[in-house]
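Tip: read the tokens left to right.
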């Protein structure tokens, strides 16, 4: 059977995963129970809640007698490293672009990577059902992008385009054509992408492009067979990404069918397979014929840009809400995460019962934290720190290309805000009443920026950012401007105390919340930290009263989600993470200890 291997790449929220749903339905690759679902490849709870693809996934459909392997890639920049790795399995790329928004920062990033792998893209203009869709203008913007990225002239002048609406489930070769479901897109895949030209009769070569984990078989390596035939039970030569040579046996072998991995006896050259049975199998490892050991070039794993401290929860409320609370349990979970995700790096921290965990961004590490807390773990994390490097004796920091979309009347405030964070302001583009601002910002300056932009734009600002290499150290940058409100006593917050202290700042806690000394309960109105008592109760008297009126008059507490808490942290603060709670706290809980440490500093 002929094979096509197609990666699906896009900017976040351009409808890539919904498009895959449509391909499944048209090709009849869904079971009856799945046919009524949406975003079927996003099976992880976090992916469904956030509406983004976090992990690259493999699936397959049969169309006109051809086995089409589909590789769904993440659309967020923090998981962009997965895009780089899985493109090595593909023979072509579906570039999904919103017919209104047009090319966005991540579009440029993933398209550049596709060109570097020699892939010719098939453009899918999605969301054609939007009344404000502007397909002709977007095609012009794509032409400019192709030229800017150095695409061959014949490709830039005449790239294939399919128009689609993933939400309504149709595609067509012309802007005003609605074909039979997604059949025109499936036909275009077969017509545009050639079958892989690999030798099935030669000695085996198979490289691991991505990793997965299964509690029954352990680590699973997924990749493409580039030569020969990979057989279940066969003993093979195993060459690590670092050049180390071993031998191993293919204990389990799978081929993709629909959204499932199905056991099989062999997978021929050109097709994508999943193997198990190699303890310690790593990204970039090559499986070869025992007599012809010719490893493929090693895969370069992307360098992390952000690092955070993970440590044992030593707070007064430790162990009350989680089931996995010891440092040994937390450490084993982090080590297992690093085995599956090569973009995560672990190293010991200076203090005991702590590890420094590095990743590609705050969201990347935030997803790891959220998964761990849902599994029952308790721990604390420190402020995200950028990972700098030294080149020619000079310190360099990671920088990002940023695009901010906001109402035009917010432009002045945004430029002033980003200037304080070391940004280089580029061009501006107006679209109706909104403006698109293009900048280059140090990654350190982007920590917490999304939250601030929401405030500056009355909740209407949207920030997109992608890694853009390294640049000179920008020096001190403004981050959080206000101090915090710190609890002086342990107990439960009272409406009486919160109401009396409202003029001091904005609270993060509500009446009845458990409070302990050193816990951060709000944001001060000034730059200094303020210690106060939020558990003080009203003195008893002979006059009957009710706290109902006080509760009604209290301002609503600020909602502090996980990413917001991570971005909010200062150097002397920690975030306590449990399955039920997120608590900001000082590293040193007692005020006397903090003063003593401040004096030494």
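Filled-in amino acids:
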């Amino acid at each position: 059977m002929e094979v096509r291997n197609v990666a699906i790449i896009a900017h976040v929220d351009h409808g890539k995963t919904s498009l895959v749903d449509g391909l499944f339905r048209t090709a009849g690759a869904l079971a009856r129970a799945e046919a009524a679902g949406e975003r079927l490849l996003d099976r992880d709870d976090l992916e469904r809640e956030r509406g983004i693809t976090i992990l690259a996934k493999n699936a397959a459909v049969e169309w006109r007698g051809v086995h089409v392997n589909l590789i769904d890639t993440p659309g967020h920049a923090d998981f962009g490293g997965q895009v780089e790795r899985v493109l090595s399995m593909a023979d072509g790329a579906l570039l999904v672009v919103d017919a209104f928004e047009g090319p966005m920062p991540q579009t440029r990033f993933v398209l550049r990577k596709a060109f570097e792998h020699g892939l010719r893209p098939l453009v899918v203009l999605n969301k054609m059902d939007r009344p404000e869709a502007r397909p002709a203008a977007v095609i012009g913007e794509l032409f400019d992008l192709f030229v800017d990225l150095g695409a061959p002239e014949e490709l830039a002048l005449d790239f294939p385009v399919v128009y689609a609406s993933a939400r309504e489930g149709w595609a067509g070769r012309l802007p005003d054509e609605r074909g039979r479901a997604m059949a025109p897109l499936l036909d275009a895949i077969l017509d545009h992408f050639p079958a892989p030209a690999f030798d099935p009769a030669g000695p085996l070569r198979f490289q691991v492009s991505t990793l997965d984990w299964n509690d029954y078989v352990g680590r699973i390596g997924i990749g493409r067979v580039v030569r020969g035939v990979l057989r279940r039970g066969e003993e093979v030569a195993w060459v690590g990404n670092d050049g180390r040579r071993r031998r191993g046996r293919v204990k389990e072998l799978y081929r993709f069918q629909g959204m499932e991995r199905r056991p099989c006896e062999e997978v021929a050259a050109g097709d994508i397979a999943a193997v198990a049975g190699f303890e310690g199998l790593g990204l970039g490892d090559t499986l070869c014929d025992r007599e012809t050991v010719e490893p493929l070039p090693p895969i370069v794993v992307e360098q992390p840009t952000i690092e955070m401290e993970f440590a044992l929860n030593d707070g007064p409320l430790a162990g009350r809400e989680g089931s996995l609370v010891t440092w040994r349990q937390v450490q084993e979970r982090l080590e297992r995460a690093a085995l599956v995700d090569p973009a995560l790096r672990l190293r010991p921290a200076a203090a005991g019962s702590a590890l420094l965990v590095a990743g590609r961004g705050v969201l990347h590490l935030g997803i790891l934290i959220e998964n761990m807390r849902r599994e029952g773990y308790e721990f604390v994390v420190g402020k995200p720190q950028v990972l700098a490097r030294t080149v020619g004796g000079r310190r360099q920091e990671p920088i990002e290309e940023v695009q901010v979309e906001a109402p035009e009347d917010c432009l002045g405030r945004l430029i002033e805000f980003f200037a304080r964070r070391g940004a280089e302001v580029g061009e501006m583009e107006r679209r109706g009443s909104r403006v698109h601002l293009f900048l280059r910002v140090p990654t350190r300056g982007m920590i917490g920026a999304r939250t601030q932009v929401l405030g500056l734009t009355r909740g209407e600002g949207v920030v997109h950012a992608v890694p853009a290499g390294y640049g000179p150290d920008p020096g001190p940058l403004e981050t959080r401007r206000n101090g915090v409100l710190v609890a002086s006593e342990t107990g439960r917050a009272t409406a009486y105390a919160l109401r009396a202290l409202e003029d001091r700042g904005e609270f993060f806690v509500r009446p009845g919340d458990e409070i302990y000394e050193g816990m951060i309960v709000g944001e001060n109105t000034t730059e200094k930290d303020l210690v106060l008592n939020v558990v003080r109760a009203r003195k008893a008297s002979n006059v009957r009263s009710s706290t109902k009126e006080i509760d009604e008059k209290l301002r609503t507490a600020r909602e502090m989600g996980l990413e917001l808490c991570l971005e909010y942290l200062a150097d002397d603060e920690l975030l306590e993470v449990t399955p039920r709670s997120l608590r900001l706290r000082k590293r040193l809980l007692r005020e006397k200890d903090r003063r003593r440490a401040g004096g030494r500093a």
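The domain at 484-600 is CATH 2.40.50.250 (OB fold (Dihydrolipoamide Acetyltransferase, E2P)). The chain is about 25% helix and 30% strand.
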